[in-house]
Write a structure and sequence with these properties.
Layout lengths: L1 E6 L3 E5 L25 E2 L12 E6 L3 E6 L6 E8 L10 E9 L3 E9 L5 E8 L10 E6 L6 E10 L3 E12 L32 H6 L9 E4 L9 E4 L2 E4 L9 E2 L11 E4 L2 E4 H4 L8 E4 L10 E5 L4 E3 L3 E3 L9 E6 L3
Antiparallel strand pairs: 1-19, 1-23, 2-16, 2-20, 3-6, 4-5, 5-12, 6-11, 7-10, 7-12, 8-9, 8-11, 10-13, 14-15, 17-18, 21-22
Length: 338
């Protein structure tokens, strides 16, 4: 028996430890000062009267929650601000945001500062284009230009729905992406499953590179969604299933599919113009990953990492994070011996 993984739209990497997963399983951390609800104040005077919601609030649930409500199909907006605390970040640091949101047209996290003329300006740290608004916890790690002397943090929430919310449980600057935290939290108690046997796998890539690639795609706009540090030991337990992983820094610990055919880099004639083959008549890639099992089994547990674009251009919504929304985008097939 062997298991074959098919990727029908995006590139996936097989790993013996899950590196793209809902962050709801991460252990809760002590809230940092920016997540103190009492320090945030609504700024109704900055919102046009016709757009003020019927109700709005900032409070603490699993984290810091901003919410607003009002009549359906009417545009509503609210802004909240908190004074900036000196020393919260240093130049060149990365912003780590753990969040969840739903029913929002627009979300904005910005730093306020006075420009050279003394006029107040806002520098966007995170916008709706960076966020997955599905109501589940996600982690965003970004590095963007920050003003040298910020005066306040601002959150803007905009919606046409009857209720909308944006919640944070982590807002922190760190020196490097590796300090963002683990991609997955291991079980507190290792699982004992003598009925499970590890597979012998041949790796051809490693997670350290997978984590860095999104940061290098767009200059001055580096972001990765649901990333985190690799495992620090070879034997880990995730949601009751033990895995044996390769934890040595720099060592290969992923299986990736073959690269895109080189022919797609060739220039071809297209209605009298020269264009890359990938843009007009691409040669299909084979994104299949084959995992030989070589024994009779009843179950196979695989853990995956997805290397997805931080933003893709959508038909209606502009640029937004890449998500897997349909079953056709990913499939697993078992080939049984005949």
């Amino acid at each position: 028996m062997k298991d074959v993984l098919h990727t029908m739209k995006h590139t996936f990497s097989l790993l013996t430890a899950l590196l793209l997963a809902p962050l709801a399983v991460l252990h809760a951390e002590e809230l940092s000062p920016p997540l103190d609800a009492a320090s945030w104040k609504a700024r109704q005077g900055l919102v046009p009267a016709e757009r003020l919601p019927a109700a709005f609030e900032v409070g603490s649930e699993d984290g810091l929650r901003f919410s607003l409500s009002g009549p359906m199909a009417k545009g509503k907006q609210m802004r909240w601000e908190r004074p900036w605390t000196t020393g919260e970040h240093a130049p060149g640091q990365w912003l780590v945001l753990e969040y969840r949101a739903q029913w929002a047209n627009s979300i904005l996290l910005a730093l306020l500062a006075n420009d050279a003329a003394g006029k107040l300006s806002a520098t966007t740290l995170v916008s709706a284009q960076d966020l997955v608004r599905d109501g589940l916890w996600h982690r965003l790690v970004v590095q963007r230009p920050y003003p040298a002397k910020p005066t306040a943090l601002r959150v803007l929430l905009d919606s046409n729905d009857s209720h909308s919310w944006f919640e944070l449980r982590r807002l922190e600057w760190v020196a490097s992406p590796e300090l963002a935290g683990p991609a997955l939290a291991e079980d507190k108690q290792p699982s004992q499953r003598p009925d499970l046997q590890p597979l012998s796998l041949t790796f051809n890539d490693h997670y350290d590179l997978l984590l860095k690639r999104p940061y290098m795609r767009v200059e001055n706009d580096t972001a990765v969604l649901d990333g985190g540090a690799r495992f620090t030991r070879d034997k880990v337990s995730l949601e009751g299933v033990p895995f044996r992983v390769e934890s040595k820094p720099g060592a290969n610990n992923l299986i990736t599919p073959p690269p895109e055919p080189k022919e797609n880099n060739d220039l071809v004639d297209h209605f009298g113009l020269q264009a890359p083959r990938r843009a007009v008549t691409p040669v299909s890639r084979d994104s299949r990953i084959t995992v030989p099992v070589g024994r009779e089994v009843s179950e196979v547990f695989l853990v995956l990492a997805a290397e997805l674009p931080g933003r893709e251009l959508g038909y209606f919504n502009g640029r937004s994070p890449t998500t897997l929304d349909t079953v056709e985008e990913f499939a697993v097939r078992s080939d049984l011996p005949r």
